[in-house]
Design goal:
With 79 residues, the chain is an alpha/beta fold. The chain has helices spanning 20-34, 51-61; strands spanning 6-13, 37-44, 65-69.
Length: 79
């Protein structure tokens, strides 16, 4: 199995404070079986809950988990 494959996963989120950690754990487990070179990028569409704070914490624990904060609410399809 090739471990030098580069993988980027982009996930739009809105008010997902209870789910971003769960999905991150599962994705990291899965992706690390495939590649050492990966990034998981969450795009926060101006969540009203603690989604952004949870993403900041995840990034501090694993620098391969990244996030973008949208400047305004764009909606699922555009984020």
């Amino acid at each position: 199995m090739q471990k030098n494959i580069k993988i980027s996963i982009v996930i739009p989120v809105y008010n997902e404070q209870d789910n971003v950690s769960k999905i991150s754990i599962k994705l990291v487990e899965l992706v690390e079986k495939i590649s050492d070179s990966y990034e998981i990028i969450f795009v926060d569409d101006c969540s009203l809950d603690n989604t952004l704070l949870n993403l900041e914490d995840l990034n501090k624990k694993n620098n391969k988990i990244k996030y973008l904060e949208m400047s305004r609410r764009f909606g699922y399809q555009n984020s």
